[in-house]
């Protein structure tokens, strides 16, 4: 709503006569008038310049206008907020050209006060990001003028409010950039981290390139690039950051914009042109950040829960290092336990959902928190649990936390007597548990955006594996009577860690992942079956790298962590399952098809098998890149033959485990 002062002064030769006490609204030549009635604003009546209305008509019109105003109260407040914001912008712009320091300080404080009024009146939040940003600008300028730490802190708080509360605002990248500028003068290490966040959080923002330039200069100043050659010379001979000189540092103006409500424009006006010092870290005992970290971004957290198992996946923009800690639950004092993982050189994306309520039988909540500028923490609130394990995967980089429910072992556990093995044929306890194979999870590899291997003729692996899975489900149910669960029943994407989580949360007794092979040499053909272990040859590592969607180099890195994970993996049972399935698969196909090549049972570190708590295997049914085998894989009869062979192998494995159990009981 316009204020009366903004309206043209009444009077003039062309102005029609008007009722006493009314002022012109809109176009006076159309005879539109409004009476000011206190804080409620204007009530309008329409008076044709030449017509005379009766008293009743005027009363009815007044009542009608009143009903409209009461029925649509948001019209006037919206106008008021627009006017408030425009006025605040004008005061800010005027303050910037004041020459007297004292007067400029007062003018900036007044402008900040006006933007705070905008926040108070803006119940719809249309100007929330702009107002916080402009208050930050006012305080930034005030800090430049006065070096008052309170102004510096206030500027940072306002900028962070924009990045945290309005991460999708077009001003968010500007606010992050200016946060770095506040730190630049006397805390270059912190400034370097803040500049790095611009590219991490807003890779498509218009401040990215400018922030990267600033960060590169800082890294050189801090000695981060020491030993690297640039232009034929080593850089960073002086590693220590320079002491604060107290000099102002020139800052390019943040791009101005329209700044009107309902647009993506950025508020007009130059940004503060100086730097400042750091704010205290979020925790009093936090050490100062390392001067030259290579930050990664924490992007999202997912979880999959079962009755006594939960998998949590923390996705990051790059590889991370971490430290893990655990505090047991204290039911007597109603204190939850905690598993917390400190992720190094990591910042939490403001767009990420940082708290996830789980509330299953043993895991209550997962949350992420930023401890300091380069250390993030993931906290799991737990009830008493049985065990947990943490490991990392790549492409994409993620941190996997597996939590198993149940009561933890006491300090003095009761040891059950287990029959002692009397020879190589004596069954292990795990093999005796094989007697209880009742539920099997079949995993059709790939799906959705992940097409898997693609033949020269355009056949997708994801379609073949799903077709085989449907046939295999029927075959297993017919032969064994076991319940069969498919990780996917349609063309949809599943991450590798989710597939294993489905098997674990389903309490599966066996896990079988179906795939088709591929090779650059189209003459390659054959069938091979894998179980999880360290790869023994380059070809096994190559296949694992392809199915993991990673490189063979990263496969060798992965094998370094497998030793710890293997402690709880049913390695022997998986090897036995792979042997039985592969033997039956090959023997079942050879009588019906020529050129069936047995590539054997192999071992390799497959992500999809990593963390599976039951015997698990991966089958490469045939080479999709081989013309003859592609035709077979597309044929329904061949798909059925594959399913029959795999089902027969699973049936043989179950029977084998029963025989072991019986021999164990007899001994």
The coarse overall form would be elongated
Q: What is Rg?
A: 35 Å
Percent of residues in helices: 25-40%
The major beta sheet can be summarized as: 6 strands, mixed
The computed structural class is alpha+beta
Query: Numbering strands along the chain, what is their spatial order in the largest sheet?
Result: 17-16-18-21-19-20
Strand tally is: 21
Number of helices: 16
- Measured between the Cα atoms of the first and last residue, the distance is 94 Å
Which segments are poorly predicted (pLDDT under 50) over 5 or more consecutive residues?
1-53, 65-76, 229-264, 274-288, 408-434, 551-557
Strand content: 15-25%
- Overall pLDDT level: 76
Structure commentary:
The protein is an alpha+beta fold and 667 residues long. It contains 16 helices and 21 strands. A hairpin with a 5-residue loop joins strand 11 and strand 12 (363-372). Helix 12 crosses helix 13 (552-565). The N and C termini lie far apart (94 Å). The model is unreliable at 1-53, 65-76, 229-264, 274-288, 408-434 and 551-557 (pLDDT under 50).
What are the salient characteristics of this protein?
21 strands, 667 residues, 38% helix, elongated, alpha+beta, disordered N terminus, 6-stranded mixed beta sheet, 5-stranded mixed beta sheet
Short description:
The chain is α+β, with helices and mostly antiparallel strands. It contains 16 helices and 21 strands.
């Amino acid at each position: 709503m316009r204020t009366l002062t903004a309206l043209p002064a009444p009077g003039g030769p062309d102005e029609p006569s008007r009722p006493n006490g009314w002022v012109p609204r809109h176009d006076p030549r159309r005879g539109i008038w409004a009476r000011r009635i206190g804080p409620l604003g204007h009530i309008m009546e329409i008076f044709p310049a030449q017509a005379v209305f009766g008293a009743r008509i005027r009363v009815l019109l007044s009542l009608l206008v009143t009903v409209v105003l009461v029925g649509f109260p948001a019209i006037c407040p919206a106008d008021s907020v627009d006017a408030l914001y425009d006025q605040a912008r004008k005061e800010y712009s005027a303050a910037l050209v004041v020459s007297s320091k004292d007067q400029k300080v007062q003018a900036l404080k007044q402008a900040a006060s006006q933007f705070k009024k905008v926040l108070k009146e803006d119940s719809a939040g249309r100007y929330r990001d702009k107002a916080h940003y402009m208050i930050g600008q006012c305080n930034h300028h005030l800090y430049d003028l006065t070096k008052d730490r309170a102004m510096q802190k206030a500027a940072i708080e306002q900028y962070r409010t924009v990045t945290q509360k309005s991460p999708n605002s077009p001003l968010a990248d500007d606010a992050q950039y200016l946060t770095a500028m506040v730190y630049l003068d006397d805390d270059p290490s912190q400034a370097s981290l803040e500049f790095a966040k611009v590219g991490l959080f807003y890779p498509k923002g218009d401040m990215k390139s400018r922030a990267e330039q600033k960060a590169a200069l800082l890294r050189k100043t801090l000695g981060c690039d020491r030993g690297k050659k640039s232009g034929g010379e080593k850089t960073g001979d002086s590693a220590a950051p320079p002491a604060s000189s107290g000099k102002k540092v020139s800052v390019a103006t943040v791009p101005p914009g329209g700044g009107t409500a309902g647009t993506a424009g950025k508020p007009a006006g130059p940004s503060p042109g100086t730097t400042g010092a750091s704010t205290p870290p979020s925790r009093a005992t936090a050490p100062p950040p390392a001067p030259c970290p290579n930050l990664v971004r924490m992007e999202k957290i997912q979880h999959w829960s079962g009755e006594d198992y939960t998998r949590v996946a923390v996705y990051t923009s790059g590889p991370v290092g971490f430290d893990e800690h655990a505090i047991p639950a204290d039911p007597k004092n109603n204190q939850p336990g905690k598993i917390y993982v400190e992720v190094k050189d990591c910042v939490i994306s403001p767009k990420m959902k940082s708290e996830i309520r789980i509330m299953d039988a043993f895991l209550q909540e997962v949350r992420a928190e930023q401890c300091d500028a380069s250390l993030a923490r993931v906290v799991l609130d737990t009830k008493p649990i049985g065990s947990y394990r943490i490991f990392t995967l790549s492409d994409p980089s993620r941190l996997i936390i597996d939590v198993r429910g149940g009561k933890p072992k006491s300090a003095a556990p009761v040891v059950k007597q287990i029959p002692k093995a009397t020879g190589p044929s004596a069954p292990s306890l795990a093999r005796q548990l094989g007697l209880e194979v009742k539920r099997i999870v079949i995993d059709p590899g790939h799906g959705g955006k992940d097409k898997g291997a693609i033949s020269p003729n355009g056949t997708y692996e994801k379609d073949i594996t799903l077709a085989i899975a449907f046939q295999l489900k029927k075959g297993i149910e017919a032969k064994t009577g076991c319940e069969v669960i498919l990780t996917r029943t349609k063309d949809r994407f599943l991450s590798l860690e989710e597939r294993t989580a489905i098997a674990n949360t389903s309490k599966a007794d066996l896990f079988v992942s179906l795939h088709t092979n591929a090779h650059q040499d189209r003459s390659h053909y054959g069938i091979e079956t894998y179980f999880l272990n360290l790869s023994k040859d380059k070809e096994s590592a190559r296949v694992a790298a392809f199915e993991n969607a990673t490189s063979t180099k990263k496969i060798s890195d992965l094998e370094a962590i497998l030793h710890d994970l293997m402690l709880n993996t049913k390695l022997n049972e998986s090897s036995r399952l792979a042997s039985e399935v592969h033997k039956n698969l090959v023997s079942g196909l050879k009588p019906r098809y020529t050129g069936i090549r047995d590539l054997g049972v192999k071992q390799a570190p497959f992500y999809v098998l990593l963390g599976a708590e039951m015997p698990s295997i991966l089958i490469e049914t045939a080479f999709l890149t081989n013309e003859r085998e592609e035709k077979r894989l597309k044929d329904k009869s061949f798909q059925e033959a594959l399913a029959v062979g795999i089902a027969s192998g699973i049936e043989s494995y179950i029977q084998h485990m029963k025989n072991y159990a019986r021999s164990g009981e007899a001994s």
